[in-house]
Specification:
InterPro entries: Efm4/METTL10, Methyltranfer_dom, SAM-dependent_MTases_sf
Radius of gyration: 17 Å
Pfam families: Methyltransf_31
Bound molecules: S-adenosylmethionine
Main location: cytoplasm
Number of strands: 11
Biased composition (Low complexity): 1-25
Strand order of the largest sheet: 5-4-3-6-7-11-8
Distance between the termini: 34 Å
Structural class: alpha/beta
GO molecular function, one term: protein-lysine N-methyltransferase activity
Number of helices: 8
Helix content: 25-40%
Largest sheet: 7 strands, mixed
Length: 242
Amino acid sequence: MNAGGDSDDSSASVAARSARSGEGSLAEDGFVPSALGTREHWNAVYERELQTFQEYGDTGEIWFGEESMTRLIRWMQKHKIPLDASVLDIGTGNGVFLVELAKFGFSDITGIDYSPSAIQLSGRIIEKEGLSNIKLKVEDFLNLSTELSGFHICVDKGTFDAISLNPDNAIEKRKQYVKSLSVVLKVKGFFLITSCNWTKEELLEEFSEGFELFEELSTPTFSFGGRTGNSVAALVFQKKFR
Ligand SMILES: C[S@@+](CC[C@H](N)C(=O)[O-])C[C@H]1O[C@@H](n2cnc3c(N)ncnc32)[C@H](O)[C@@H]1O
């Protein structure tokens, strides 16, 4: 897994394939556990990006590229999601998606990340954009503070992927992710996930408890050896009634 646009040869898809089949020993779920699943890794990434932003004003990588953000906003537009709907970006990284949401007109936006440097960077970028109404919080999604609940929309771009690579019992962590999602999302609320590590079918299985597929978003396809597939899956789930 890595940053990049979701074109055929994106480093995201290449790294996703190696996460499944690459060097190192496979965990029970078929992934090679990796530093990408640890807080230390992300802290180091965003500390570097924070420094680069301070020196050069560069906001850093947008996971799955600009198109991944446009795809989500287009979906919100198509479904006439009200601009005062509460939106939570899970593992917001540099917070660039929050900026896009605010520029589009959303007024109740929250970004969380377990890396304090990611939240610091998001804050600086948001400040530079002259936006003030975005809530940011250092928060581990797998160990939530009770204040986070009642969201209409939750977005995940690459965070479930990262959690799936955690060297310390990733299977349990994925189960906890689904539980946390059930806590923060309102009944009938939407969960928009973009993943390069999981196929549509696998995501349906992962989120079968309490969520149902609402829509699959189209992503670029690639062909190899006479077969065609997608390097990135983008799905919208809806939380079922309890
Ligand atoms: C692949 S990056 C994606 C960042 C951002 N969503 C984007 O699209 O650019 C994964 C992000 O998830 C965050 N993350 C991973 N595990 C987390 C957890 N348990 N709670 C909160 N954030 C987490 C990392 O710090 C990192 O910012």
